[in-house]
Amino acid sequence: MKHLSKIPTAAAVLVLCALGPVSIAHAQQTAPDNSQQNKNQSQNADNQSNATADRMTTAKIRKAIIADKQLSTYAHNVKIITLDGKVTLKGPVKSEREKQQVASDAAAVISADNLTNQLTVKQ
To answer: Which pTM value belongs to this model?
Structure first.
């Protein structure tokens, strides 16, 4: 019985030893820093309104985009920023066709006049 109580402790030590070098190597890598690029962006996720109507609009557009199974993971994860009923789409997509399809999915929820498409095609 005494030996069985040491097994979880021994397993934990082995796991920590195995993860130790990974954690140290990861900590030594520099994190990507795009702060300068983000400062130049006038419309970003921080500008998302907390108004109920804007949050609901964003949620409806997100559901429409996610429901479109022909889109890539990139397209499913584009940024949707809604401020006073105006929507901005940002982020990379895989093709020009996909860029237009995401905009079309969003335009099915709101008027195209209230939509700004700033999606970029990933090279």
So the answer is: 0.64
pLDDT in tens, the chain (123 residues): 555 555 566 555 555 555 555 544 444 555 555 555 555 556 566 777 788 999 999 999 999 999 999 999 999 999 999 999 999 999 999 999 999 999 999 999 999 999 999 999 988
Tokens of 97: 């066709």
3-state SS, one letter per residue, for the chain? CHHHHHHHHHHHHHHHHHHHHHHHHHHHCCCCCCHHHHHCCCCCHHHCCCCHHHHHHHHHHHHHHHHCCCCCHHHHCCEEEEECCEEEEEEEECCHHHHHHHHHHHHCCCCHHHEEEEEEECC
Rounded CA gap, 103 and 7, in Å? 56
